[in-house]
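Entry 14. Ran structure prediction on the chain below.
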Amino acid sequence: MTDITIAGLGRLAWIDVVLLVWFVLAGLSTAWVAWDVFRNTPEMTVLKWAWVLTTLYMGPIALLLYVLADKEPRPGTHEAFIRPMWKQALGSTLHCVAGDATGIIIAATITGLLGLPMWIDMIAEYVLGFAFGLFIFQALFMRDMFGGSYRTALRRSFMPEWLSMNTMMAGMFPAMVYFMMGRDMRAMEPREPLFWGVMSFAIAVGFLTAYPTNWWLVSKGLKHGLATARRDDGESQESTTEHQPIVGSSGAPPSPQRAPARKGS
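Output, structure tokens:
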């Protein structure tokens, strides 16, 4: 234990001090990414929000990934900058983690506050994580890629999202069980910093285990990666790369194309 005391938390252990520093870094990283991605990066709106959420969960790690993979180094270079396959796969993983992890955190917080058993917690996290990722981050936010049909987006997103979610959970769940069921049971309590530290670490592990699956899904045209969305002279245009098409009804990926321009007001 340390001599540091914080109202509401009491006397802090060293791990709590380390975690509080991490939370401050995560908050600063999130604030900078949110400011930069919405101000400077010509990315799809859903992926802008995915960067913000993932940085909130993964802190400086996500900030580094954003700078390396999606932040436009010079004006007009975003299309070429995001083209490498490793960046496309990272964008797909980012989209998965942002949606699924949000649902998982909501479920874990509720079950933790209610003091429910770990097995109920795991089921709730799986169901809500998958539902949040599929129904909101995939089908709802990406329905324009399927002709504006939510039902079509839901049907075609189901299997890719399920595969991606399962490989993310393959990393997250063991990490959560190991630390939450260890000697320090504060990790099960959402009012404790340790709970949020374990969640942050588990999400990072899940990001890592989901990455290979998302590489494969993007390479087969089953999920999209990063994209470029520009607004010039009142016209909004979105371009894609050869790695981004979603499989069409015939089973073959459609040719990359620009979205129709919309006149500004």
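Residues 233-265 have pLDDT under 50 and may be disordered. Will compare against last week's run tomorrow.
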